[in-house]
Specification:
2 copies of one chain form a homodimer. Chain A contains 12 helices and 17 strands. Helices cover 35% and strands 25% of the residues of chain A. Chain A has 345 residues and is α/β, with parallel strands linked by helices. Chain A starts with 12 loop residues before the first helix and ends in a 10-residue tail after the last helix. In chain A, helix 3 crosses helix 12 (319-335), helix 4 packs across helix 5 and helix 4 crosses helix 12 (319-335). The model of chain A is unreliable at 1-19 and 340-345 (pLDDT under 50). The relative contact order of chain A is 0.16. Chains A and B meet through helix 1, strand 1, helix 2, strand 3 and strand 4 of A and helix 1, strand 1, helix 2, strand 3 and strand 4 of B.
Amino acid sequence: MHVAAPKAQRSLPLELWPMNTPLYGLNSLREVLTRHDILRVVRNACVQHAHDKVISAKSGELLFQNPPGDCHIRFGYFRGAPTFVIKVAMGFYENPTRGLETNNGLMMVFSSLTGNLIAILNDEGWLTSWRTAAAGALAAKAGAPSRVTALGILGSGHQAELQALWAAHLLGTQRVVIWGRVKEKAERLAESLQLHALTAHAVSTVEDVFKQCNVVITCTPSTQPIVLAHLVKPGTHIVALGADSLGKQELDPHILAQASVIMTDDHQQCAERGELAHALHAGLIREEVCVALGHVLAGNSPGRLSDHDITVADLTGLAAQDIAIATLAVEMSQLSPSNSALPPP
Amino acid sequence: MHVAAPKAQRSLPLELWPMNTPLYGLNSLREVLTRHDILRVVRNACVQHAHDKVISAKSGELLFQNPPGDCHIRFGYFRGAPTFVIKVAMGFYENPTRGLETNNGLMMVFSSLTGNLIAILNDEGWLTSWRTAAAGALAAKAGAPSRVTALGILGSGHQAELQALWAAHLLGTQRVVIWGRVKEKAERLAESLQLHALTAHAVSTVEDVFKQCNVVITCTPSTQPIVLAHLVKPGTHIVALGADSLGKQELDPHILAQASVIMTDDHQQCAERGELAHALHAGLIREEVCVALGHVLAGNSPGRLSDHDITVADLTGLAAQDIAIATLAVEMSQLSPSNSALPPP
């Protein structure tokens, strides 16, 4: 029971990990996860969440001053599931100056029957990026008018690229129009999208995006409206991804006031820290226009009433999405032949 | 950027963990951690906490119904430290019926400059047990009268055994008296303590413990007072470990009313969920008698005023203690020769 070692022993890697718990790194996750599967489980996660089938703890936050950074933890499980998931996500904003990615993180899957560790997914933040890309694409499809002219993307970062690839694929359009505060970055993103067989180009103003596109996904870290109400034509669907914490905002609240349908991934969360928060605070909208994204994805509620509506999807991120993709990653990894290389039990 | 694998590749264990992040299991932690070092860093953690040098997030909790269990997460860092720590602790109360330990858990150490994962400590809950044992022993010493007649232990579980071993050692006494609700378990604990060169015996009543001992550590899951005020003689020091959440209680609140010094690991936390909560709620004590354990350990405040005082230490557990022991474990593991067996960078 006491700490002194019973006997000296060399800690070979396997001994360092006596339970032989599988550890999956980013490369092996890329191997076993497909966009199709991720869309499937994230869609299901949104539906389960809307039906209150998810138990999750309030996410914890730890802040760092110098250099600036933050660490968020979400954890939870689907009612009755044999596993639960803990997700750790970090953002350290000076990392690029050190040649490192800003975002990082990992997920852990445990037995909800015994608490035993089942797997660690050292995804370096990618599982979060992928589940966010899936949620954005599903929300874009859920509210899109019957004919999509082109997909607009506001933002030119990491998530903007994923949104363009995943949403264009799901919407069945090749045409992507990109605006970013730094034109060169938007142009570089357009070029890299062309490598994926998309007809992508960068434009100089947000107005140019809304002139050409009737589905627009916003994924910037903006703290003030970059989309003004007069730019948004009838028949436009906007997916707002950027605002996920207090102080962030991308849409003029009057756009939500004009919307016939506002889809939220979680009403309470959006009312606290999404675009919805600003519109509610300004007293601009009736909560009746709000519907859970999960109910739309389940086909229980329409994403838009006509091709002339303005519709908005406000996404702030769900623990359910983290739980779903982590569970998928473990299931697929356990099925993968590469597992023959895992330490034997 | 998209999910489909760039190329098939066998995931050998090293490739599963591309960053070669060290993973330390319980055996290797037992190898490098000594009681002496743990006492040193936990003492320092209590002092740092008392001086407000610790940044920690409110601990998150996830509950499970069937089978009953809970998962707690604490995370934080020492101001200015290059690392931060996330600690996951589980309790699944039907595990013993499956031949598993009730408690489980792991800790992770990250860079507070970049968010990069530095190490995973798969301690199965032992780091928490050890830091708790250290805190109990330090608190026992901090309030002990000049001559210790014998060490009393209320409880006969896992933590009771650690408290007996660590506190007897620190107090310099061989005499240990144990009471547990199940006499046979207390007798088995006494026998196992005898194997560690302690003169230990089990008694039938809590009263018998207080007749023989002037330092008593309580570590039971009791939800009502098991130590009544009339049992406690002048010159007795009690360390209350069991009550760490709402509803738990081991001491008659009048004992705190009689105490000349009440040490708390964290005043606010004890006032919310420790023994202090019950005494404050009953309006029995003046907060002036309360002092931070860290101030006593630092020598800035006395643990008792005379050998005739009754004194109490109320411990509810600190993130600082988790941070300290996890940091120690990584430092010692990185120094350990067994590391030559780690995957090369």
